[in-house]
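R.M. (postdoc): so does anyone remember the format we settled on? I'll just put the structure tokens first.
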């Protein structure tokens, strides 16, 4: 459902939120998130250009969050790395005379809206806060439980 690039971006933002404080270098983030440093560096620069991260050059530099973790939603990160979640407002098949969505497309659009709402209402800070109901949202992946990529990565350049 989300691209590999988006998952990597979320892992990096969560890592920086967990680390708190000063900037972290790309290699440290890559080691922690199990993402190649070269590819992660592109993602980090993109997140910095879009205002999610701050990039500092030089000795003591690196990447840090631009805002507090409670002020960054999952959707904020996804908007940087994904195309918008496309809602279905007209017949995707282009069938003339379909002025309303059929039951299938209405159900699909409702689910897209629900997913978007969850992403928008969940902050990075909430992901760090610990277990919560439902779905135990506070549990974070550990190196022993590395996630499997869901889709191919979006072109970064």
């Amino acid at each position: 459902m989300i691209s590999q690039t988006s998952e990597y971006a979320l892992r990096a933002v969560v890592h920086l939120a967990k680390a708190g404080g000063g900037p972290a270098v790309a290699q440290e983030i890559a080691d922690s998130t199990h993402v190649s440093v070269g590819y992660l560096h592109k993602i980090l620069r993109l997140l910095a250009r879009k205002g999610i991260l701050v990039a500092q050059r030089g000795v003591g530099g690196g990447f840090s969050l631009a805002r507090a973790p409670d002020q960054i939603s999952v959707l904020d990160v996804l908007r940087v790395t994904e195309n918008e979640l496309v809602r279905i407002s007209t017949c995707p098949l282009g069938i003339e005379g379909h002025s309303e969505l059929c039951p299938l497309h209405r159900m699909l659009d409702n689910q897209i809206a629900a997913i978007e709402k969850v992403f928008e209402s969940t902050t990075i800070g909430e992901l760090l806060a610990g277990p919560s109901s439902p779905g135990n949202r506070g549990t974070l992946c550990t190196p022993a439980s590395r996630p499997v990529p869901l889709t191919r990565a979006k072109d970064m350049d």
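R.M.: ...and that's the designed sequence above, right after the tokens. Also worth knowing: The chain has one domain: 4-140. DSSP finds six helices and two strands in the chain.
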